[in-house]
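Proteins fold. Shown next:

***
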Amino acid sequence: MKAITIRQPWATLIADGVKLFETRSWKTNYRGRLAIHSAKKWDRYGQQALEAFYPKLIEYRTKAMPCGYILAITTLVDVVPVEKIRYKLTPLQLHIGHYDNGWYAWKLEDVEWPTFPIPVTGKLGLWEWNR
């Protein structure tokens, strides 16, 4: 199965169904099931965003948002230039993504959680995860 490594808190926000688009500076022709892997490092901007929208979770981030695990399986259904969707997004979606011109929005649907987080070493780009 294809997988992508995403820094926290973005990986958990995808797993929770809060973040509906993963934004990237590159596009892919791949469509289908996609494992969401949480990177070993936190995104500093992401921590600020989390504090703004989910202040109570910050206290529990180590437990609630583990790093270095497959957290969810989702379906990548489309990849579009952000300029095509930016005007349709809620303020929350705009706050938790990178919607500058030239970037791509990866539409994610049908999020499923594994029984428990699966420890895995991540990689850059799309990579193959052997369950």
